[in-house]
Amino acid sequence: MPSAAASRAVVADPTFYPSTDDMGEPTLQVSISVLLLALLHRWLVSRGKPTFVGMNTFFYWKQFVAKESVAPDVYVLPGVSLSRRPPSWKVWETGKAPSFALEVVSSDVDKDYVESPEKYDRLGVRELVVFDPYHEASGERVRWQVFRRLKNRGLVRVEATNGDRITSRVLGCFLRAVGEGDDVRLRLGTGPAGDALFPTDEEAREQAERGQEAEREARERAEAARERAEVERETERAARERLEAELARLRAELASARGG
Q1: What count of Cα atoms within 13 Å lies in the side-chain half-sphere of residue 114?
Q2: CA dist., res. 118 & res. 112, Å (int)
Q3: pTM, full prediction
Q4: What is the SS3 assignment for 18-76?
Q5: pLDDT, tens digit, 9 for 90 and up, residues 39-77
Q6: Separation between Cα atoms, residue 54 and residue 37, nearest integer Å
Q7: Within a 13 Å sphere around the CA of 155, how many CA atoms are in the beta-carbon half?
Q8: pLDDT above 80 (res 175)
C-alpha cells in the first residue's frame, strides 16, 4: 500500500493531536526502550549513519484524524534534524515515516499483536519488530515478530520465533533478548551470527579503560625489559673488562718471567 509519508499538505488545521496518552508506561517497557534507544544511537553513529532515534513519540499520518496515530516504544526516523524534539510527528509536515519501529508487548496484547501492525502499515514503516517479554504466558504468543514492507504487499510478517535473536535489515545488526523475566533487555548483536554484543556506554568506557590499562602495563613491561637488557649489557661489559684486565696481567707476568 502507498506510504503515508508520500502525502503532504499545508492547510489550516484546528485538530488537537495529543502528544501523550497520560496512561504511563510499564517499568519493564521503559527499561527496555531506554537501553535500546541509547544503543541504537551509538550504533548508527559508529556506522557513519547518525540518525534520529526516539521513543514513545506519537506519529500522525492522516491530517484531521487524530485517532490515526501510533507511538513506537523505540523508532528510527531518517531524514530529519538530529536536534529536533517535537511533541509529536505529523507525517504530512515532514514527509518522513520511521524506517524502524519497536513495540514491546504490554498488558494490552490484542493492541500489540493485531492493531499495531495494521497501524504501522498505514504509517509506512519499513520494518517493525514486536517483542513480547512475557510470551510464555500463552502458547498463542511469540517472543519475536518481524514485519517488513514488501513491494505491492505492504507490511508483512516475515518471521515469528521464540529464539533469543532476530535480524534487522534496516539496522544492519541483530536484536537479542538478554536476561529473563523482569530483567530481560534488548541488546544489539554483531558479527555473522550476532554473537558479539555491541557495548553500552558503560561497557565501552570500561573497555576503553581496560585498553588504556593494558597499554600502560605493556609500556611498563617494555621499559622493564629495556632496563633489564641494559643491566645485562653493563654486566657483560664489566665482566669483559675484568677478563681483559686479568689476561693483560697474566701476559705481563708471563713476559716478565721469560725475560728474567
Answers
A1: 5
A2: 10
A3: 0.76
A4: CCCCCCCCCHHHHHHHHHHHHHHHHHHHHCCCCCEEECCCEEECCCCCCCCEECCCEEE
A5: 999 999 999 999 999 999 999 999 999 999 999 999 999
A6: 7
A7: 26
A8: yes
